[in-house]
Amino acid sequence: MIVSIHEVDDPRLEAYRDVRERDLVGRDGLFVAEGRVVLEKLIAAHPERLVSVLVASHRVESLADILAGLPSGTPVYSAAQAAMDQVVGFPIHRGILALGRRPEVNAQDLLARLPSGALVVGLIGIANHDNMGGILRNAAAFGVDALLLDDSCCDPLYRKAIRVSVGAAVTLPIARAGTAEALVEALAASQFEIVALSPAGVVDLDSLAPGPRTAILFGAEGPGLPASILARVRSVRINMAGGFDSLNVATTSGIVLHRVRRRPASDRRRRSSPRPGSRRTPLPW
């Protein structure tokens, strides 16, 4: 359903107007995604979430195979590049934007639907969108089943976080869990073994032998995880050269998730290998 737009003040483009300013004030239950890769992943994972797509006219033909996956009736607005830049408020070099509905996910319901050998990432105080996007990208790469965020984390569906995550932000199951304490309580109630990353961690990462149902907590660079959280869970450190005590949190998540995924298959209770003839039910956001 390609709709050619010829006027920059066309009311159908209102939701795309002044994107950067809207990024800051919110969009009443909607989000904006940017770029071909992100659009492709969003259509493949959750096409029902898409409200509309805005594409520079010179990109429409090259996107035909991706746009064919949209639900019937989803409008695709096509505008000249200059007009699109004017509407958006800056040069949108990728020439592709999509408007989606934010999912409403309850943390307890999400945890209850996870498989017995689930791996969950808990984020506390992650306020930088680059770090958020990097962690989400790593989580998708290493097969994390879900992510819980405390209330002090930044928005995982902020446009920059989505872009840095290479689309993982719109495909992974993510839920807010309230305070840091509430997040840990929710994981404990769902029988997760909880480990937390800290430069002063008691256990060396190389010695970590996580159980089949594991949650890994990451905190912000600088303050790290709250002392009250570290006092009640097993803390893990990454050994580094003398005189250097911390890594970027996104880098840390990649190292840790790769290490956890190397544990023996028997410890995972075959979480990623369904019985012959069975199908694993996809989880909602």
Features:
Alpha/beta knot, 5-stranded mixed sheet, alpha/beta, 2 domains, disordered C terminus, 285 residues
How are the secondary structure elements laid out?
Elements (H helix, E strand, L loop, with lengths): L1 E3 L14 H7 L4 E5 L1 H10 L4 E7 L7 H4 L8 E4 L1 H8 L7 E6 L5 H6 L6 E6 L4 H13 L4 E4 L9 H6 L9 E3 L3 H10 L3 E5 L5 E2 L9 E6 L7 H4 L3 E4 L11 H13 L24
Parallel strand pairs: 1-4, 3-4, 6-7, 6-11, 7-8, 9-11, 9-12, 10-12
Antiparallel strand pairs: 2-5, 3-5
Helix pairs in contact: 6-10
Describe this entry's structure for a reader.
With 285 residues, the chain is of the alpha/beta class. It has two domains: 100 residues, 2-Layer Sandwich (60s Ribosomal Protein L30, Chain: A), CATH 3.30.1330; 162 residues, Alpha/beta knot, CATH 3.40.1280.10. The chain is elongated, with a radius of gyration of 21 Å.
Label the overall shape: elongated
- Sheet having the most strands: 7 strands, parallel
The strand order across the widest sheet is 8-7-6-11-9-12-10
Report the mean per-residue pLDDT as an integer: 87
Number of strands: 12
Span of the ends, CA to CA: 26 Å
β-strand percent reads 15-25%
CATH architecture of the largest domain: 3-Layer(aba) Sandwich
> Please, what is the CATH homologous superfamily of the largest domain?
SPOUT methyltransferase, trefoil knot domain
Taking all Cα atoms into account, the compactness measure Rg is 21 Å
- Domain count: the total is 2
> Which percent bin holds the helix content?
25-40%
Question: What is the N-to-C succession of helices and strands?
Answer: EHEHEHEHEHEHEHEHEEEHEH
Number of helices: 10
What class would the helix/strand composition place it in? alpha/beta
CATH topology of the largest domain: Alpha/beta knot
In the CATH hierarchy, what is the class of the largest domain? Alpha Beta
